[in-house]
Amino acid sequence: MSDTQNTSFINKPDNHSKNALKSPDRSAATHQYDAAIQALQAQFGDKLSTNMTVREQHGHTMTWLANQPPDAVLSAQDKHDVAKAVEICHQHKMPVIAFGIGSSLEGQLNAPYGGLCIDMHALDAVLQVNNEDLTVTVQPGVTREQLNHYLRDTGLFFPIDPGANASIGGMVATRASGTNAVRYGTMKDVVLALEVVTASGEIIKTGTRAKKSAAGYDLTRLMVGSEGTLGIVTEITLKLSGIHECVASGLCHFPTIEDACQAVMLTIQMCLPIARIELLDALQIKACNQYAHLNLAETPTLFVEFHGTEAGVHEQAQSFSDIIEEFGGTDFVWDTDETERKRLWEARHNAYHASSALRPEAKALSTDACVPISRLAECVSATAKDIEDAGMIGPIVGHVGDGNFHVLLLVNTDDPDEVSKAENIIDRLAKRAIEMDGTCTGEHGIGQGKQKYMQQEHGSALIMMQAIKQALDPHNILNPGKIWPSLP
Amino acid sequence: MSDTQNTSFINKPDNHSKNALKSPDRSAATHQYDAAIQALQAQFGDKLSTNMTVREQHGHTMTWLANQPPDAVLSAQDKHDVAKAVEICHQHKMPVIAFGIGSSLEGQLNAPYGGLCIDMHALDAVLQVNNEDLTVTVQPGVTREQLNHYLRDTGLFFPIDPGANASIGGMVATRASGTNAVRYGTMKDVVLALEVVTASGEIIKTGTRAKKSAAGYDLTRLMVGSEGTLGIVTEITLKLSGIHECVASGLCHFPTIEDACQAVMLTIQMCLPIARIELLDALQIKACNQYAHLNLAETPTLFVEFHGTEAGVHEQAQSFSDIIEEFGGTDFVWDTDETERKRLWEARHNAYHASSALRPEAKALSTDACVPISRLAECVSATAKDIEDAGMIGPIVGHVGDGNFHVLLLVNTDDPDEVSKAENIIDRLAKRAIEMDGTCTGEHGIGQGKQKYMQQEHGSALIMMQAIKQALDPHNILNPGKIWPSLP
User: Fold this and answer.
1) Which of A193, A289, A333, B145 has the fewest CB atoms within 10 Å, counting from its CB?
2) If you count residue pairs, one on A and one on B, with CB atoms under 8 Å apart, how many are there?
3) How would you classify the pairing of strands B156-157 and B241-242?
4) Which of A177, A209, A471 is nearest residue B11 as measured by Cβ atoms?
């Protein structure tokens, strides 16, 4: 990685620059924020709440980071509410944070500098389905389960499945992916176009419904994954997928994680169009057995799903069976019947709750990393050893076709020693992934939790990101203090 | 589309802004460029040429746009040459344009403000193949045919096929795609990471070899398609695909373009993983018949390719046969034998030369547009009518699975009336595509030729693009006058 010297190519944000990415000054600005909130109250009336319970609900985190509530919460009813609210915040230089359903995992929704939280839950309309084009346009508050429910009679589905029933807007913000990504891609691959409220409250459109374009900069992909720091999304046009005639689910066991990873690599090299391929380590299987009274062999296990025609799915299952045999895979069972499929995947679906039940009094903290698949076994094994050495409990589940995996650390967050041990495990994992030419997060995002790895991962490219932020949000009002710290 | 009012959200480039996207002032700056060229000569010696023939070769266009040669051409030998040259250009505020193989179609390589052209042909090394990860890292001068030749024994291939034997660097710059895009995506989908020389001559890296990441802004996709206006690419890491066990090629005829498009839509809705699906209109087939002494029915024709296992390919072909029957498709023939496949696709492979031969004394000018597939038949038919009404010759070929198609207008470019008619056809096509919620270019890019449509297609988002350009290239030295005009 390059360092940050010789960064004259851009207007480097620094303490001397008038518009640097500086922190909104809370202490000096209280009066200013009061004026902003008065202006918002005048504009929105009952849609605006300053109730502390409501504020705390919107500043919650899924981490050990402290709750940092916003000063007020707006329940936006349409895009014009969002645009007007941002315009007011822009006038008063007050931070503004969009809220979907609150399932982000790295403190993306905290309000370290206060400001306004715009809750998008009422923007929950599916605006337009185009069956012939396999596209849909939705408001950001629609959740992925709502969307798939809406689509149930169309023969189409929205394939991105990050586990949580996240809002589509939130999934855009964190560049979400999940179990289907190995075949269907991530949010970066399925977003065709966005409607975005900019830092000054203007509504713009990025992209069209054409499947591809070579007309100028790819603002859509710049917005996807920007965690609300470059604009607030008010409409999303997505590519959908056709539902295949036949779906089969299955699982098999391996002597070691290395063997399982080798089988996954060969599966992908052989062009098997696998729809899901998930690794659960031995501890995770043990947790699932205990939780759901299952009787699975407590060894590294792959859960797989095949999508295709009936003949195609049978052929895929046979090819997969041949592949795993080479690497000591055993007890491969699979089925196309829906009830049986659910039974086979029960352990995978219950992974989170099963893990939590290993230590019910602890908080379950999820972290993720992503590496080239050739390094996956090494990365998972070294991480498992770190967890063991620390005497902690941390089952591992991986979207292994992408080289992406999660550790669920069970931590007593009231014990500073445990928190420190957990932080150390996460720290070593993030750095290890980057050293393996991977990334400190495959799908959870940076938020507040992973800012310290941005320099190591991106080098001088980080300065380029900050130059873009400064150009598009000169007052640093859009979700400040996320992705990188605001400068003092 | 929104208009450009209320654009205060960014430092709007305008005549009052010190660092607006203004034209390098050639007349006043001659002396300054002389100094820059002297500095480049001192640095690079014989690697730098100011020979007019060499300069004109590097300012060529594939359009009716006049040749605008650079002031000098550097044959870069490595990334450090590129970085040093850009640094010198930066010091002297002289334009700098990267040159791959010269196959861009919208004047991307012209030098309207002079400056330095950096020829990348010597940066032609395949640096690293990672079979296990299906990735490769190459220098920008490698062409797609060179890369696939290099990969021939690995079981892997690079799937993006824009027709021309383009350089990978050029394909990054224009966000190229082509016949395989319906299954394998475009350059935006296969580029994992880039090494980029910034406007000040610094070398940065965007992305890693991990298949996905949620760590900060997607600079990789911002660079892809930016036509050399945000940085010069010196290394590219690509995702590869496994070569399938079986490939089948085929063709079939339809009564109308509408019927052919309906068959394509159903093919995609039915989840058929079609690898290529190309439409040739009746005139194009007639041209191919004449050129290669073929005997194809002169009606709209689909050329298809299936990739998969042997059983899978047979199943796909059978399903496709069933689908086309619904829409009057006839004479479907297909084969898996390589010689026979080539024979079947001969007409498609010869399309360009066959079209040109319809009027050998004319110049063949290629334009493209892309629309939602549900609008494709209407867009193609209206365009064909425009061509007929103008009394011109312009066969149509489409990457129809993406809603993307090309018109090859055969124009006597010495006849202003013909040029005007051709411009009018292209103008109506671009505007029609945008009105259909599509784009004025699916894969050729904007360059100089399509700048006038950026406002209609992007509205205020255009201002956001320009703010990014200004932030990353404040002196506007990177390929100025492309994508949008430089301001006076």
Assistant:
1) A333
2) 343
3) antiparallel
4) A471
Within a domain: B236: yes
Number of domains into which chain A is organized: 3
Q: Are strands A246-253 and A363-370 parallel, antiparallel or unpaired?
A: unpaired
Q: How many CA atoms lie within 13 A of B315 on its CB side?
A: 17
Whether A190 and A227 map to the same domain: the answer is yes
Provide the residue range defining the domain that includes A401.
Answer: 245-439
CA gap B450, B464 in Å, rounded: 18
Chain B environment of A201 (Cβ under 8 Å): 9
Nearest CA in chain A to B262: A132
Half-sphere exposure of B245 (CA within 13 A, CB side): 11
Q: Which residues, 6+ apart, have CB-to-CB distance to B125 below 8 Å? A: B138, B139, B142
Alpha-carbon distance B360 to nearest alpha carbon in chain A (angstroms): 30
Over residues A152-175, the pLDDT tens digits come to 999 999 999 998 999 999 999 999
Give the pairing type, strands A404-411 and A363-370.
antiparallel
- Considering only CB atoms, which chain B residues are within 8 Å of A105? none
The one-letter amino acid code at B426 reads I
Token representation of residue A121: 């839950």
Do the strands B96-99 and B116-119 form a parallel or antiparallel pair, or are they unpaired? parallel
Question: Which tokens hold the place of B470?
Answer: 């200004």
Would you say residue B18 lies in a domain?
A: no
Tens of pLDDT, residues A194-252 = 999 999 999 999 999 999 999 999 999 999 999 999 999 999 999 999 999 999 999 99
Q: Which of A102, A25, A105 is nearest to A64 (CA)?
A: A105
Check residue B24 and give its pLDDT: 62
Chain A hits for B246, CB-CB cut-off 8 Å, are none
**Which chain A residues are within 8 Å of B373, Cβ to Cβ?**
132-133, 211
Query: Are A178 and A139 found together in one domain?
Result: yes
Question: Is B364 among the domain residues?
Answer: yes
Cα separation, A170 vs A145, whole angstroms: 14
